[in-house]
From TrEMBL:
One of its GO terms (molecular function) is DNA helicase activity. It comes from Phytophthora nicotianae (strain INRA-310). This is UvrD-like helicase C-terminal domain-containing protein. PANTHER family: UVRD / RECB / PCRA DNA HELICASE FAMILY MEMBER. Keywords: ATP-binding, Helicase, Hydrolase, Nucleotide-binding. InterPro entries: DExx_box_DNA_helicase_dom_sf (IPR013986), DNA_helicase_UvrD-like_C (IPR014017), DNA_helicase_UvrD/REP (IPR000212), P-loop_NTPase (IPR027417). Residues 325-646 form the UvrD-like helicase C-terminal domain.
């Protein structure tokens, strides 16, 4: 509690809301823990069930190691043990990956074990207790605050008339709220410190933080950090009072942990202070016969603040449960990775300082190239690969491309340079990393047209969104024909839709009524326009009919039903449900993300009508919302003449 209030006081002293770094070791309370230099082997893993004193072991090291995995495997071999593994990261934990390779997750669960990330475990606790709430990411939270018009505190209120300034104020507020939630600070705690400060600005911030939490409760929503705070409150440690802990620890927390005999905690350094507090509380439950935590730090001698918080909470919880516990530090007696560590440090120094006179050679030679044009990049990389293949027949080269289009471009360039390459396994991979700049979800192919359709139905005179729909892949109206059609009307500010209606009703005769055209004169259309006239007339007729029907039905159908009807009318629904190409699969994934955001929008505005949903989507359009369909592609060139795309 003292540490939480210290963090609040530090935030109150700042006039500008800025990002905060992790608290230093000096700002963390010292623990009454015995630190010993022990060998982190399986001999220290077990503790007798009847032992009066249970020791929690913590290993803080600077090198990658398999101690957490070895401990888990040893415990899983004991028939009477039921192990709970909690990780600071989610699915990318090396220990989780290795365990799932040994045995599937459902098999471990069937045997009474559990493998979770801390947020994942918190979500499970809330779901099983009937207190689950929908989780909003940063972009959704920003759109929610902007849509509900939350009043900004202090000087930010003066700039509320400016949309950009108001958006900036909302984002700054979210950064402060995120800091408070990561530290586990409740609105009541924040208000107590604000009142004690005697200043007006901190009290306004505290009141805004309270309204923010009430708004989330109103929409049954929370953030990822707020999820952990909810779990802390559910377990009885949110208030920070020893008396309150004694009243609640013996019921819910004990019921949660009674099925487990051992707790293993990995990647503690990735946890937030609130996560470390929750995990420490769980490790201190009476049914836990042994517990251990593993964390990594950057340099020798560094401390892990999250490990200290975890150990401190274990001792606090143990004092409430009446079970004697202590904490001890483990240390690796031998370092088998010393040579590799030295090389990796040299490699990192080479990257950061660009120094060449390093006594220890780097394991991988590094060279950075900068190209002014894509053609220069293709020539240089192709020449480099050709030279490598000539000097070494067994050389394998990998080229990473940010997009599928770049992969095709590089492949074609290599073929022109005589490199014997070919595309193998043209499979689309929806990976979670990308080397390119993030693409907004509403700019994804297919999604952009659907988003523009909803905006066009909400604002009938908005020709910009109608144009996006007309020129999208759903209709692909010829650009030359559209330019000729709007030659006169764009000067008189006529909406696009009436022009297309007149074009369809006159069967194309309205085309070419330019300012210089006189009645009775024979109009000669350019060849590209005349060749596209018949096809364009067919597209325009289909477009006009669909828009007319949707405008008539948009007050009866929900936004999601309008999207489905639009996809059916354009014949794209089957291709999205059963994609047969990388492009279609990416579009399908992106559209699925958009439909989830559409559902969220309908819940936030408490209506499924387009007239209410579209303005919220426009707020969401201004945030950095990305799609899960981001991909990266890898080109592999070898002497055996193949190029692989992943």
């Amino acid at each position: 509690m003292a540490r939480q209030l210290t963090v609040v006081r530090r935030s109150l002293r700042r006039d500008v809301l800025l990002r905060k770094a992790w608290p230093s070791v000096g700002q963390t309370c010292r623990l009454f823990s015995s630190v010993s230099s022990l060998n982190a082997s399986t001999s220290d893993v077990s503790s007798l069930p009847g032992s009066p004193n249970i020791v929690h072991h913590s290993l803080v090291t600077t090198v990658p190691n398999l101690q957490a995995l070895q401990r888990m495997r040893w415990l899983l071999q004991q028939p009477q043990r039921r192990v709970l593994l909690l990780t600071g990261s989610s699915s990318d934990s090396p220990v989780r990956v290795a365990l799932e390779q040994d045995s599937p997750a459902f098999e471990l669960e069937r045997r009474g074990h559990g493998v979770f990330g801390v947020r994942e475990f918190s979500q499970l606790l809330l779901r099983e207790s009937g207190r689950e709430r929908r989780i909003f990411d940063h972009a959704q939270l920003a759109a929610l605050l902007l849509h509900n018009g939350m009043e900004l505190p202090g000087a930010s209120r003066l700039a509320a008339s400016s949309t950009l300034q108001r958006r900036k104020g909302v984002l700054d507020l979210l950064q402060l709220f995120r800091l408070l939630e990561r530290e586990g600070v409740t609105p009541e705690q924040y208000a107590t410190v604000a009142i004690a400060s005697g200043e007006q600005a901190p009290q306004e911030l505290a009141e805004t933080y309270r309204k923010y939490q009430e708004l989330l409760m109103q929409h049954n929503a929370t953030s990822w950090d707020g999820l952990v705070m909810d779990a802390l409150e559910l377990c009885g440690v949110q208030k920070g009072s020893v008396v309150e802990q004694e009243a609640t620890t013996n019921d819910f927390s004990r019921e949660v942990l009674k099925e487990y005999t051992d707790v293993v905690v990995d990647d503690v350094q990735r946890m937030t202070p609130a996560m470390a507090t929750l995990v420490g509380h769980l490790c201190g439950q009476p049914s836990v016969q042994s517990s251990a935590s593993f964390s990594r730090v950057l340099l020798d001698g560094d401390e892990c603040p999250q490990t200290r918080i975890l150990e401190q909470q274990i001792l606090k919880t143990a004092s409430c449960t009446g079970r004697e516990r202590s904490v001890a530090r483990l240390a690796l007696e031998t370092d088998e990775m010393a040579d590799k560590r030295a090389k990796m440090k040299a490699f990192a120094k080479q990257i950061l300082t660009q120094e060449a006179d390093i006594s220890t050679p780097a394991p991988i030679p590094l060279k950075c190239w900068n190209f002014g044009t894509s053609e220069a990049e293709e020539r240089s990389v192709g020449a480099f690969l050709a030279q490598k293949l000539q000097s070494d027949k067994t050389t394998q080269a990998t080229v990473l491309c940010p997009t599928h289009a770049d992969a095709n471009r590089i492949t074609l360039a290599f073929k022109k340079q005589g490199l014997p390459v070919q595309m193998i396994g043209d499979q689309f991979a929806a990976a979670t990393s990308s080397t390119g700049a993030p693409v907004h979800l509403f700019d994804e192919p297919g999604v952009n047209a659907v988003y523009s359709l909803l905006c066009a139905l909400c604002f009938p005179s908005d020709s910009r969104h109608l144009y996006n729909v007309l020129r999208s892949d759903y209709f692909a109206f010829p650009a030359e024909l559209l330019s000729w059609l709007m030659e006169k009307e764009h000067r008189s500010h006529v909406d696009l839709f009436p022009v297309l209606e007149a074009f369809v009703q006159s069967q194309g005769k309205s085309l070419g009524t330019s300012l210089s055209y006189r009645e009775g004169e024979e109009l000669e259309l350019p060849k590209p326009v005349s060749s596209q006239l018949e096809k364009g007339l067919e597209i325009a007729e289909s477009f006009v009919n669909i828009i007319k029907r949707l405008r008539a039905e948009c007050h009866q159908l929900s936004a999601a039903e309008i999207v489905q009807s639009f996809l059916e009318d354009t014949g794209r629904l089957d291709a999205l449900l059963k994609p047969s190409s990388p492009e279609q699969e990416r579009e399908s994934l992106a559209l699925a993300d958009f439909l989830r955001e559409l559902e969220t929008a309908q819940n936030v505005v408490k209506s499924d009508q387009v007239t209410f949903v579209a303005p919220y989507l426009q707020q969401l359009r201004e945030t950095n919302l990305t799609s899960s369909a981001f991909v990266y592609f890898r080109l592999q060139v070898t002497h055996s003449s193949h190029l692989q795309l992943l």
